[in-house]
Amino acid sequence: MFKTIKNIWHIEDLRKRIGFTLFVLFIYRIGSFVPVPGVDKSVLANTNNAGADLFGLLNTFSGGALMQFSIFALGITPYITASIIVQLLSMDVIPKLSEWAKQGEHGKKKSAQLTRYGTIVLGIIQAFAMSIGFNRMYGTVMIPNATFAKYVLIAIVLTAGTAFLMWLGEQITERGIGNGISMLIFAGIVANIPTYIRTTSQSSFIQDNQIFMNSLKTILLVLVIVLIVVGVIYVQQAIRKIPVQYAKRVVGNKMYGGQNTHIPLKINAAGVIPVIFAISLLQFPVIIASFWTPNAWAEWVKINLSHDQPLGMVLYVIMIIGFTFFYTFVQMNPQQMAENMKKNGGYIPGIRPGKATEKYMTRVMSRLTMSGAIFLAVISLTPIFLGSLAGLPKSVQIGGTALLIVIGVALDTMKQIEGQLIKRHYKGFINK
Fold first, then answer.
1. Distance of CA 331 to the CA centre of its chain
2. In terms of pTM, does the model score above 0.90?
3. Which secondary structure element, helix H or strand E, spans residue 347, and what is its range?
4. How far is CA 126 from CA 80, 106, 261, in A?
5. Which CATH superfamily is domain 1-191 in?
6. What is the dihedral of CA 161, 162, 166, 171, to 10 degrees?
7. Residue 31: partners with Cβ closer than 8 Å, 6 or more residues away
8. Same fold across 1-191 and 206-397
9. CA-based max dimension of the chain
10. What is the pLDDT of residue 218?
């Protein structure tokens, strides 16, 4: 492993990419502490603890910028929402978007541009609602002498912060290492780890003057974290190989094809994207409702749709499973895979090319995806159950979801680095 890390710095291109990524993440962390103009910082300081529990993972996504109401308070949530909307509309809802989805790289660029425009529109709406909501949420005046012009100014600043983060994420994807948006979420979660540790040590989970019990609880907590890490790595790396044979073809005086290969299907091909989508959508109505309390409907939404309540858990699991299937079949279309195999003279042994191959691939992918979706749901809910039993704060109970995202992004980034090393004849992290 140490030799692999040493090899990374021997490759100039890889060294520049890693350095660029770290530089962008450094800018992101600095911006998380730059306050929005016209906000009373003392009010924010007094309301941070209550808000951190309420906003949960959304505050974690932004690296704590949401509760500090910095220029990056919106984070990349509008971008995630816009991506969901564009991808849903591409599923034969709007013919033009469906056509773009079939145009390859050119179509992806058009969809990405539409996602950017959607991010700005959603950002303005969410920023305006957030500026009004934060000002009235705790019964205090966070924005002194608030006027419509002040709300508009704050909304513009917050939207500009989101647009800048979106641009930073694209720069990481193009010139750095890993998926840019995922790396920003990764950085925000890692930055909050010290806060998790401090909150846990100050909660009722750790009791004064009970050294033995405190040590036992700490060991159990660490053990649960290790089991989650091992489980996530095991499932994220697990694949099923579908054997494929290619018929021999004679072109002129040469013979082509005839080789045996396989299609690697991952148990969790969607990664952590379904969890990010699900928690973003689930907490959106909760945040909106919190701005309108003490209305009866707002209180009901805030209480019942919370991630630690029965209804909220059910919706959370349903959305995780739904988004896992949606994202997997968008990324890996069985019909397109079957057509490509048939065009290239490939077939799965014992399965007829064409429609039969498509049905077989759909059946196999459905079973694998269901296993992966259930795993994601279990990993996301386990810390919530254990946290409720142990009396941990809500901000710590979502640690399993955060850990799932961190491990998924780390594995994906590691694979990209390994690909760069193998391409240049270096051994990677996994290769012996």
1. 16
2. no
3. strand 346-347
4. 13, 30, 49
5. SecY subunit domain (1.10.3370.10)
6. 10
7. 65, 70, 71, 72, 161, 164
8. yes
9. 85
10. 73
Whole-number Å distance between alpha carbons of 269 and 409: 13
Mutual angle of helices 180-191 and 193-202, in 10-degree steps: 30
Q: What per-residue confidence (pLDDT) applies to 204?
A: 57
Distance CA 134, CA 293 (A): 12
The letter for the amino acid at 122 is: L
Helices of type H across 10-147: 12-31, 41-61, 65-68, 77-89, 95-101, 105-137
Q: Burial level of 378, CB count in 10 A (0-12/13-18/19+)?
A: middle
What SS3 class is residue 298?
Answer: helix
Q: Mean pLDDT across the chain, nearest whole number?
A: 78
User: CB-based contacts of 245: which residues, under 8 Å, 6+ apart?
Assistant: 259, 260, 346, 347, 348, 349
Q: How many residues does the chain have?
A: 432
3-state SS class at 60: helix
Pair of tokens at residue 265: 């299907």
Output the CA torsion sign for 90, 96, 100, 103.
Answer: positive
Q: Where do the structural domains in the chain lie, given as residue ranges? A: 1-191, 206-397
How far apart CA 7 and CA 152 sit, in angstroms, is 51
pLDDT for residue 208: 57
206-397 has CATH 3.40.50.1820 classification? no
Mean pLDDT of 18-28: 91
pLDDT at 398 over 60: no
Across the strands, what pairs with 249?
Answer: 256
Write out 206-261 in H/E/C secondary structure. Answer: CCCCCHHHHHHHHHHHHHHHHHHHHHHHHHHHCEEEEEEEECCEEECCEEECCCEE
Q: Which residue has the tokens 């988004």?
A: 323
Q: Which long-range contacts (C-beta less than 8 Å, at least 24 apart) are formed by 420-427? A: 420/11, 420/13, 420/14, 420/17, 421/4, 421/7, 421/8, 421/11, 421/14, 424/11, 426/4, 426/7, 426/10, 426/11, 427/3, 427/4, 427/7
Q: What is the DSSP string of 99-121?
A: HHHTSTHHHHHHHHHHHHHHHHH
User: What letters, b where the CB count within 10 A reaches 16 and e where it falls short, cover 304-326?
Assistant: ebbbbeeebbebbbebbbebbbb
